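User: tokens in, sequence out, please.
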């Protein structure tokens, strides 16, 4: 049973949250992409994360990672191998694609392939102008003195 929500009333009272509502709508839709190969997402620090994807049998040349406008895509496509000589073939080598929606200011720090795990390291780097800053509070007397200074200096400028 699927339930859809109407976010239209929220659009009237919010500004700049369009992306959040799109993410909610996309999350509600049924996933057409399989969850193969399995993966983990771990928080490794205050502002760092790691996605680990089990890619046994894949080489670096079989894998591709792209990052564009908050969308991280991991693709895997094995080179065609001859099926001769196999009595049983249980290690899956089928192509895959995983897409991860990343929050604003999350960047890919690097990726490595080790022991059948593709590890993608992410870091959230908030720009300096977006970080909280302290605002000085001026008293009414300070504001009055500044206004008086401006009034005194104004005729001198003319």
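Assistant: Sequence out:
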């Amino acid at each position: 049973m699927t339930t859809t929500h109407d976010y239209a009333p929220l659009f009237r009272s919010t500004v700049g949250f369009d992306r959040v509502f799109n993410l909610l709508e996309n999350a509600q839709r049924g996933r057409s992409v399989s969850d193969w190969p399995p993966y983990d997402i771990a928080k490794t620090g205050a502002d760092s994360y790691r996605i680990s994807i089990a890619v046994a049998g894949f080489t670096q040349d079989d894998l591709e990672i792209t990052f564009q406008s908050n969308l991280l895509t991991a693709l895997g496509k094995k080179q065609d191998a001859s099926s001769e000589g196999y009595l049983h073939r249980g290690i899956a080598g089928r192509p895959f694609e995983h897409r991860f929606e990343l929050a604003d200011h999350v960047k890919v720090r690097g990726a490595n392939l080790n022991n059948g795990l593709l590890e993608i390291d992410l870091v959230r780097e908030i720009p300096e102008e977006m970080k909280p800053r302290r605002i000085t509070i001026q008293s009414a007397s300070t504001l009055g003195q500044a206004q008086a200074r401006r009034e005194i200096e104004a005729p001198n400028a003319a």
